[in-house]
Amino acid sequence: MTPNPPTSTYRIQLQPEFPFAAAERAVPYLAGLGVSHLHLSPVLEAVPGSAHGYDVTDHRSVRAELGGEEGLRALAATARTHGLGLVVDLVPNHMAASPRHNHALRAVLREGPDSPYARWFDIDWRAGDGRVLLPVLPARLPEVRDRFRVSGGSLHLNGQEFPLRAGTEDLPLDELLDAQWYRLGWWRLARTELGYRRFFTVSDLIGVRVEDPGVFAASHAKIVELVADGVVEGLRIDHPDGLADPQGYLEDLAAATGGRCWTVVEKILTGPETLPAAWPVAGTTGYDALRRLDGVFTDPVGADELADVYREFVGSTGDRGGHWEATERRAAYEVVTHDLAAETAALTRIAVRICADDPALRDHAPWALRTAVRELLVRVPVYRPYRTGGEEVLTPEAARGAKAAFAVPEEATAVDTVRELALGTRGDGPEHRAFRARFAQTSSALRAKSVEDTAFYRYTPLLSANEVGGDAGRPAVPVDEFHAYCLRIARDWPATGTVLSTHDTKRSADVRAAIAVLAQCPEVWAELLAEVAGVPAPDPHVAWTAWQTAFGFGTPDPDRLGPAILKSVREAGLRTSWTEPDEEYERAVAAFAAAGPGRIPLRTASEAAFALEPHIRAHALGAALAQLTMPGVPELYQNTEREYRALVDPDNRAPFTVGPDDERTALVRAALGLRRAHPEAFGPGGTYVPLAAEGPASAHCLAFARSGRVITAVTRLSLRLAQAGGWQDTELVLPEGRWTDALDGVREFTGGPATEVKLAELFAERPVALLARVE
Fold first, then answer.
1. Rounded CA gap, 685 and 707, in Å?
2. What is the predicted pLDDT for the residue at 1?
3. How confident is the model over 328-346, as a mean pLDDT?
4. Cα–Cα distance for residue pair 523/720, rounded to 1 Å
5. Do β-strands 94-96 and 85-90 pair in parallel, antiparallel, or remain unpaired?
6. How far is residue 474's CA from residue 461's CA, in Å, rounded to a whole number?
7. H helix or E strand, kind and range, residue 108
8. Helices (H) and strands (E) in the chain, counts
9. Is 544 helix (H, G, I), strand (E, B) or coil?
10. Cα–Cα distance, 483 to 499 (Å, whole number)
11. Phi first, then psi: what are they for 312, rounded to 5°?
12. What is the C-alpha to C-alpha distance for residues 644 and 649, in angstroms, rounded to an integer?
């Protein structure tokens, strides 16, 4: 961790329509907000036209479409003159699987396993016929055969380009195709026949072996140079769980950068899981903080009531039974057997080879090893096991559950073998190490695809809880648990990242805030659904999900709501999917979205709905202020310094704009100004002290002090508070001293044991308070 971590960061989504020069023009404005660092999406060369940059094609150069290295260095220089540093998103796990643009992959496909670039990728040359399957054809080979052409030493098809093995250019087409180190196949073969490691289930992104020292050095030389030159001061590591050895990679990165970088990892922590203490990083990118921030403003009683209303409303059109744990497990089985069939097959091949070489294991049948792999993977309760602590993830209890899938107990011993291989307790040869790494990598892909991209779209009582790192079955977080989390972060990871919205959140913080308020009034939500029942929906599940999405979004907008709703039904995979679309059903969904959620202003559909607006505001402002002042380094996603309503990507990746200030902007400037003025109070060495209110409404106040300099107090569950009669005589004892209201610069309060402050007075102007000690 760098000795001087950022006090706050601001994330900008770069794209050809918003290059380095555009970001440079925004620097004065961003400096005026009070951020210390500008966080850039990936900057290395990517597929032409890419709107996100995660499809890296060449690690040796900065992306030309963004302005190249000259543009990046100019941006860094301008930022520096305004007191800002740069943080860059780094993508070590994968590259674009595009032979036309990926020079390393192109060399491998041309030269085969003897290519010096062959070690860059996890390719199983022993799978299939010994060639790399490229699942890129729009149909079976005979149906597209006449579309191929050979030109300039390459094979061309529909804008795609594939290198040819030396000496094969003049062969007849069938012989030419058979003579290559790769086999062009129908895109559907990727599910079961793929012979290379990919990013999740995205065959267009091929995994990179950064565990190889040569690959690491070559793929990180430019970034290391930019760090050494002071152009880059921080790194966000994308998807470290995809790597063979995340800890080893991070150790190599720290050594290469000389510890000069503030580094955070996009690590999704599940439940009480904590970041491995040995990782040489400042912390995570903040999804663990997001979970606590969303949860502490969610009503647990109402969330349970809402789940009951949901099950009654959707009936059999949702996931069977409508309970989170069962939905999650069913989704895991579907993904591991269908979407990740190629990955489980790869693990089985490695296990079969290991068993063939070990006399004690030779009688394990391939089907038994495959079953054991599947049954253990679905029982991993977190994203993946690591070097240490694997026994806490792949437990004996998990093994017993996996064995229950076998009809014959003697065959179930394959589970013990697979578990030992996954834990690394049986052998340390190359194949053993490969199995352990691939099991962990597949585990993370399974968790992401089955939870984030499937179950979160099938179980939808309260969509605000269905966020990356969230727990749809337990959406609420008690105040004491929030404080315990903050105390631990302040102690162990004081420079970790915190977020509320990102380029990957399914709904922005403002959309989630509106939806979360429904947990305080399930009866109002039921009434709203009854009012719009006249708009026919394809089924109750899509009706519930679409109307709740529309309520969170707030403004009818068919051009934005329609694609998000269609994406939700495809991800759920209950009636249609990305690979097996039901066109008639999708047309019905689109028509419903346009006629209903995309047209009817649900937030003002009734007096009861309109009355929720102050409580949505209280939640949104409270979460924003808590994030900006809690332990860790807060990140603002572009445009979230004001009210920002966005849905799942690509909706949330529109170019940055400077909009009119609102009360959120003033809150952001005040909080970030205090962080910049007093970095010692918020960063490493700073303290976090929970403050407890006293009185009948004490549960509705979340308050804490930072190093005796700043006090944050916010209202939680304001609708329930109003229903219970308001603050009444509830009081908060402030720490000793004089305190001024940093949001208006006028009001003053005195702290001390005998000087309680009435919360009705503290929150008279707004539902949040930010107090600064008067020196």
1. 9
2. 42
3. 97
4. 13
5. unpaired
6. 11
7. helix 103-111
8. 29, 27
9. helix
10. 17
11. -70, -40
12. 14
Beta strands in 587-709 (DSSP E): 633-637, 688-691, 693-694, 701-706
Going through 158-215 in order, the beta strands assigned E by DSSP cover 160-163, 182-186, 198-199, 202-207
User: Are 536 and 672 spatial neighbours (Cβ–Cβ below 8 Å)?
Assistant: no
* Confidence band, pLDDT 50/70/90 cuts, at residue 488: very high
How far is 751 from 739, CA to CA, in rounded Å? 7
Between the CA of residue 567 and those of 457, 581, 674, what are the distances in Å? 9, 11, 41
Sign of CA dihedral 575, 579, 582, 588: positive
| Radius of gyration over every alpha carbon of the chain, rounded to an integer in angstroms | 27
Q: For the chain, give the mean pLDDT.
A: 96
- Under the banding of pLDDT at 50, 70 and 90, the label for residue 390 is confident
386 pLDDT more than 60: yes
Separation of first and last alpha carbons in the chain = 31
Residue 468 CA to residue 449 CA, distance in Å, equals 11
Question: pLDDT digits over 647-698, tens only?
Answer: 999 999 999 999 999 999 999 999 999 999 999 999 999 999 999 999 999 9
Q: Is residue 735 within 8 Å of 710, Cβ to Cβ?
A: no
What's the token pair of residue 265?
């990892």
Whether the predicted pLDDT of 95 surpasses 70:
yes
How many Cβ atoms from other residues are within 10 Å of residue 591's Cβ? 14
CA 504 to chain centroid:
5
Amino acid letter, 7: T
- Comparing CA positions, the residue from 572, 574, 564 lying closest to residue 594 is 564
Could you tell me if 445 and 242 are in contact, meaning their C-beta atoms sit under 8 angstroms apart? yes
Instruction: Please give the pLDDT value at position 70.
Output: 98
CA triple 168-173-174, angle to 5 deg: 100
Query: What is the Cα–Cα distance from 284 to 250, expressed in whole angstroms?
Result: 13
CA distance 598 to 592: 8
Signed CA dihedral, 122, 128, 131, 134: sign only: negative
Give the whole-number percent of the chain exceeding pLDDT 70. 100
Closest CA to 471 of 307, 629, 612: 307
Separation CA 204–CA 96 (nearest Å):
6
Other Cβ atoms less than 10 A from the Cβ of 122: the count is 20
Q: What is the pLDDT of residues 160-193, one digit of tens each?
A: 999 999 999 999 999 999 999 999 999 999 999 9
Sign of CA dihedral 698, 704, 709, 710: negative
Say how far apart CA 464 and CA 456 lie, in whole Å: 10
Following CA atoms 418, 422, 425, 426 in sequence, which dihedral angle do they give, to the nearest 10 degrees? 50
**3-class secondary structure for 707-726?**
CCCEEEEEECCHHHHHHCCC
User: Which helix (H) or strand (E) segment is 517 a member of?
Assistant: helix 509-517
Mention every residue, 6+ apart, whose C-beta is less than 8 A from residue 691.
703, 704, 705, 711, 713, 732, 733, 734, 735
pLDDT tens across 712-738, in order?
999 999 999 999 999 999 999 999 999
In angstroms, the CA 596 to CA 60 distance is: 50
Backbone angles phi, psi at 748, to 5 degrees: -130, 150
The 10 Å Cβ neighbour count of residue 685 is: 11
Cis peptide before 650 (omega within 30 of 0): yes
CA 43/CA 67 separation, integer angstroms: 10
- pTM for this entry: 0.96
Location of structure tokens 């070489």:
357
Structure-block tokens of residue 427: 């052998």
Rounded CA-CA distance 770/686 in Å is 17
Condensed to tens digits (0 to 9), the pLDDT of residues 304-331 reads: 999 999 999 999 888 888 899 999 999 9
Check if the beta carbon of residue 146 is closer than 8 Å to that of residue 235.
no
Bridge partners (DSSP) of residue 130 are none
CA dihedral of 218, 219, 220, 225, whole degrees rounded to 10: 70
